[in-house]
Amino acid sequence: MSGREMHALVERLYPLCRSITGEGVRRTLEIVTEYVPLETHEVPTGTQVLDWTVPQEWNIRDAYIADASGTRVVDFQESNLHVVGYSVPVAATMSLAELRGHLHTLPERPSWVPYRTSYYAPDWGFCLAQRALDRLPEGDYEVRIDSTLADGHLTYGEHVVPGQVTDEVLVSCHVCHPSLANDNLAGIAVAAFLARALAAARPYYTYRFLFAPGTIGSITWLARNAERVRRVKHGLVLACAGDAGPLTYKRSRRGDAEIDRVLRHVLRTSGREHGIVDFSPYGYDERQFCSPGFNLAVGSLTRTPYAGYPEYHTSADNPEFVKADSLADTLAACREAFSVLDRNRSYVNLSPYGEPQLGRRGLYDSLGGRSDAKQAQLAMLWVLNLSDGEHTLLDIAERADLAFDTVAAAADALRNAGLIKE
Ligand code: ZN
Known about the structure:
By secondary structure, this protein is of the alpha/beta class. The protein contains 13 helices and 19 strands. The chain has three domains: 2-55 and 153-343, 3-Layer(aba) Sandwich (Aminopeptidase); 60-150, Glucose Oxidase, domain 1 (3-Layer(bba) Sandwich); 346-421, Arc Repressor Mutant, subunit A (Orthogonal Bundle). It has helices spanning 2-13, 23-33, 96-100, 130-134, 181-201, 216-224, 226-229, 258-269, 286-289, 324-343, 373-386, 393-400, 404-416; strands at 39-44, 48-49, 52-53, 57-66, 72-75, 90-95, 103-104, 126-127, 140-150, 153-161, 168-174, 206-212, 232-238, 247-250, 274-277, 298-302, 346-349, 388-392, 420-421. The strands form five sheets. It has an eight-stranded mixed β-sheet with strand order 1-10-12-11-13-16-14-15, with helices on both faces. α5 links the parallel β11 (168-174) and β12 (206-212). Zinc ion binds at residues 177, 183, 313.
């Protein structure tokens, strides 16, 4: 059910021309707000953020290349991928030979349009299918890009799901790609539905959702939240969340943070086909959250990883490339992981000299009819044995090779019987 709803959100956001600044990002955040209310932040051009500066705001209304008869042979109105992101305005007539230096194609995928940007160097260009370029006769072409680069703002959105404690889990996704579905929109859709689901579940941690343009957006957030960063205990960057490939978890820079162990446990015990890869300073905004000065415990969850599929950064990353079932599975994995994270505690055995008598306390009887009675009993013995204040329930689940839920249920029963305390 939610898979189809998330896919509908992907389709709705798909036509908007997003970039690292501008109206496309604002409109995207407005639409997300219909699902989960966002607090929108506007940071002025020129603001110093860590080693970067918020750039001028880019907006575009129209762009095309027209032949001598006035027919548009490349048209922004058909797909926003046709214009290099952050192109400066152009109004000129030039020969195809002159124009070629500004044209980008994918010769190895002749029917796909590539996605290109030029954020930090003033330039302009068009992207088109190699096949379309091959059809263009020599001659003069009218080239027009009706864009604006002007002082404005960088826009990002936040949503907070309050928890029982002020320690935070940061969930972030990038919102800076134009018509690219898996890389961008799938992560946005999963994040929005995850925020909604968590709000209904009254979580332990406070969950902060960040919808921000890649790189400059997360850098801006980090620069403006020096105090809050200390409260971020765990985090997850969501991207490429909807293709048909299996889930891939990329560890935080720390490599053995609690979030890393939680994701590994959930993916392994759920029986899902999956991959786990080590941190590298490449990919999405984990690069910023895991820069050495911050070194946050932030991992990244994708399906097929960053740049790992041929459709990546091309017109073939369209809504059909994103599957409702995959979106639903990514959402489910996040919920399972955060449910483990929220319940992971260490306890102290209050009766540590010899095993306490479980039967007398009704702890054997309660298991009688359960098909997993044997596992549940084993889990109680493990929790009692390792609850010395130094082992968390996740430590115990891993050591005992039991599912976290089984161990957590055992801990609940033992706590209710007064045998362990937090
Ligand atoms: Zn991308």
